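User: structure tokens for this one?
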Amino acid sequence: MPKVSLDMPTELLDDIRQHVGDEKKFVSFADAVRTACRKMLDHLDEVDRRQGRGDEQ
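Assistant:
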């Protein structure tokens, strides 16, 4: 699996970390970021469908 490096504001990093760990929604920071990316892409796909833009790949 490829690794990605990025700059992120501390406030955003801190907010995400509040949801990571035992008995929380995500098991790791990477899991939280992957899940957020998947949800964002699903949302963008839905916007494209509503705008009449189909899969052109």
